[in-house]
Specification:
The complex is a heterotrimer of chains A (263), B (174) and C (270). By secondary structure, chain B is an alpha/beta fold. Helices cover 29% and strands 27% of the residues of chain B. Helices cover 37% and strands 23% of the residues of chain C. In chain C, helix 3 crosses helix 4 and helix 3 runs parallel beside helix 5. Chain C is of the alpha/beta class and 270 residues long. Classes of the chains: A mainly alpha (263), B alpha/beta (174), C alpha/beta (270). Chains A and B meet through helix 2, helix 5, helix 6 and helix 7 of A and helix 2 of B.
Chain lengths: 263, 174, 270
């Protein structure tokens, strides 16, 4: 009986040690990738390529989702607000939900699914086909060549995507509220403008999405870099990237919302 | 000497160069789209005015109760926005709310007999400041930068009104 | 070239284990300059690991690996990188970069390290591709090539920087007889023409014996025999004989160690 209990305690201990070690390895990886700044010319070329893969290729899904989420928010909001004769407040409702929460959060979740999983799979495949080892044997640091440009591309792309998401979402709400439901366009904008504060809303939107970008890209790169090099390992790592990023995004969002708007 | 042209490997242009070029253009557009979204949010959604320091002047007003008035709430004259609330603070000595107004220089000829009231748009809507221009007479000067408006009317608190209504109804029925 | 010349790589009393499992126990060997040295042994004894230890990608638990007199695992990062520019490795999978074509793969290290102009790099790459007979596929992507061709392209990439030493990880594994012949010819020819030091890790006995100048045979976590191919063919070590002849049973038993057979049939698996 007591042996079983001690075994369980040992399991908990091993689990904790594994996790702490994993976090340590992830930290070292990120530190090494960031600190060794890439050389300017070659680094820029690599970064541009990754911005294309990570940013440009995620743009369609972000814009389409943003448009629809803005429209749905407006439709649902309208049916509730119109009951109180407060349909004028549709603009601020949509704009504030998008800028404060949905913009950064949904963009980061979509980004984790679209770009994060692709990063993990790509790097996992590079590792399992020994391309990373091969770079090392060519005296080229894979952290600098492979990890760093992808990290920066993620950190640059996600905030931009979140801004695009919120912007197109607000225009989606405008389509539903003004063109369809007949709210006056002037009052839609003026009430919206009166309630959106650029420092508390837009800057916080950017802060949130930068934090999410760092976390998602970091998890994706770490999962790929430390993959068990076989097909099963890669598929597992890809799933882990999406699950862990999503949980991290939602938890961090709650934390940051409490700090920014909770007071 | 190997003839490079016959091998179809050309140094600068060619398929690969075109592809890189296309990627560069798309990445450039991506960055510009991000910047455009930022600018739209800042200037169109948050409506940040690039304030040229001399286009506004400041007024102060004391209220008994500011109710739901907020920073950036509009100041209106007959429905026309002439300025915005810049700050709401409590006077440390008199313990009364002091509202700082940022007024548009375009509308600068209000007499110092003007009155200010906290009004509500609709039954439950946002609160704003209604400015009522006073009479103009000899010895009445115009409001300047840094002046205070003395004639103010505090916010109507709905709960108080309902309370009064109920009180007066019950006293009548007796 | 005399036998007294200093070896390029010297491994001294190397010990390495992965978790609880001991992979090497007290391995010592030396690899002479300009020769083809083969390391043979059955699958799954960590021959690739040995190459990674030699390249400084893994760190041993004990012992040293000296490259030209420098202890690879005591070097600073930049020293290690400058050593790695003098060696290269042909991975079993080829490990070509899948996002660029064959030409760019071969040009990659040159562009990174040589500082040469693009037009000179182009000529060097074409010469390397010509040497492995793949100039015709310069513009194709690695995935369009057969396994043997991928390995040859990877070989062209490995010799692009004109290293002093090339390590071949199972170069013959899974090749058809023709590609096998091509690779044997290439390794031998490159070694002679460029005065390369070659380290071939393999379990393909006949091919290895046909190209190697000197052979080490590994089993049981250490080296069990070494000598010239001729000497090994006639050596009288049971384990070595079984390996060279490919006998299914012998010192390396056919059966993996297990519980008593009758016992298990009667009472089922425990």
């Amino acid at each position: 009986m007591s042996v079983i209990v001690i075994d369980k305690i040992a399991n908990v201990g091993r689990w904790a040690i594994d996790n702490v070690m994993g976090m340590g390895r992830a930290g070292i990886m990120l530190y090494s990738a960031i600190v060794r700044l890439p050389r300017f010319k070659k680094g820029t070329a690599l970064l541009v390529k990754q911005l294309y893969v990570v940013g440009v290729q995620s743009m369609v899904i972000i814009l389409v989702s943003g448009l629809f989420i803005g429209m749905v928010l407006a439709l649902q909001g309208y049916t509730i607000l119109v009951g109180y004769g407060a349909e004028q407040s549709l603009g601020p409702m949509v704009a504030l939900s998008l800028l404060r929460e949905l913009g950064p959060v949904v963009t980061a979740l979509l980004f984790a699914g679209r770009a994060g999983s692709a990063l993990t799979a790509e790097i996992g495949l590079m590792k399992s086909t020994e391309q990373l080892s091969s770079l090392e044997m060519m005296a080229i640091d894979p952290l600098r060549q492979i990890i760093a440009p992808r990290f920066w591309a993620g950190v640059i792309s996600l905030p931009l995507l979140a801004l695009m998401f919120s912007t197109i979402g607000i225009y989606g709400a405008h389509i539903v509220g003004v063109d369809w439901k007949g709210i006056d366009s002037g009052s839609f904008w003026s009430i919206l403008q009166a309630s959106v504060e650029w420092r508390s809303d837009i800057v916080n939107c950017l802060i949130k999405s930068v934090v999410f970008a760092v976390v998602v890209t970091w998890i994706a790169l770490y999962r790929g870099y430390h993959v068990i090099p076989n097909p099963e390992g890669i598929s597992k790592a890809t799933t882990q990237t999406v699950v862990q990023s999503s949980l991290a995004i939602l938890a961090l969002d709650f934390l940051m919302t409490t700090m920014m708007f909770g007071q | 000497m190997i003839n490079l042209d016959t091998l179809g490997i050309d140094s600068e242009s060619g398929n690969k160069g075109m592809l890189t070029r296309k990627i560069e253009i798309l990445v450039g557009l991506f960055l510009l789209a991000g910047l455009a979204a930022f600018l739209v949010l800042v200037f169109n959604v948050a409506n940040v005015q690039v304030s040229r320091g001399d286009s506004t002047y400041t007024l102060y007003a004391k209220f008994g109760n500011v109710g739901g008035l907020k920073v950036r709430s509009p100041v209106k004259v007959g429905g026309v926005v002439v300025g915005r609330v810049k700050a709401i603070k409590l006077d440390p000595v008199k313990l009364e709310p002091v509202v700082t107004l940022l007024m548009d220089k375009q509308y600068s000829s209000f007499p110092d007999t003007s009155s200010l009231a906290i009004l509500t748009s609709g039954l439950l809507g946002e609160q704003f400041l209604g400015l009522k221009p006073g009479f103009v007479d000899d010895g009445v000067s115009m409001l300047k930068n840094g002046d205070s408006i003395d004639d103010t009317q505090s916010a109507l608190i709905l709960e108080d009104l309902i309370g009064q209504l109920l009180y007066s109804m019950s006293s009548k029925s007796k | 070239m005399t036998q007294t010349q200093k070896p390029l790589i010297e491994i001294r009393n190397l010990g390495f284990s992965r978790g609880q499992r001991v992979i090497y126990n007290d391995v010592s060997l030396s690899i002479p300059k300009g020769k083809v040295t083969a390391i043979m042994g059955p699958s799954g004894i960590g021959k690739t690991t040995l190459l990674k230890l030699m390249g400084g990608q893994l760190t041993p638990d004990s012992g040293q690996v000296l490259f030209d007199g420098l202890d690879i695992h005591r070097c600073s990062r930049s020293e290690l990188f400058s050593i790695r520019k003098r060696m290269s490795m042909l991975f079993q999978s080829g490990a070509l970069f899948t996002d660029m074509n064959v030409f760019d793969n071969v040009a990659f290290a040159l562009r990174e390290h040589s500082g040469l102009s693009e037009s000179i790099i182009e000529r060097i790459v074409l010469m390397k591709l010509e040497a492995v007979g793949l100039r015709g596929v310069a513009k194709q992507m690695p995935t369009e090539l057969s396994g043997g061709m991928q390995r040859r392209a990877a070989l062209a990439r490995a010799i692009a920087l004109e290293p002093e030493m090339v390590m071949y990880d199972e170069p013959f594994a899974g090749q058809d007889p023709i590609s096998m012949g091509v690779l044997v010819k290439l390794i031998r020819e490159l070694s002679d023409a460029l005065n390369l030091t070659s380290v071939v890790v393999s379990h393909d006995v006949q091919e290895v014996l046909s190209i190697a100048d000197y052979v080490y045979v590994m089993a049981d976590k250490t080296i069990i025999a070494h000598g010239t191919p001729e000497a090994l063919r006639h050596a009288d070590i049971a384990q070595l004989k079984q390996f060279i002849e490919g006998a299914p049973d012998g010192p390396v038993p056919f059966h993996y160690p297990a519980a008593d057979y009758q016992e298990e049939l009667l009472h089922g698996l425990k």
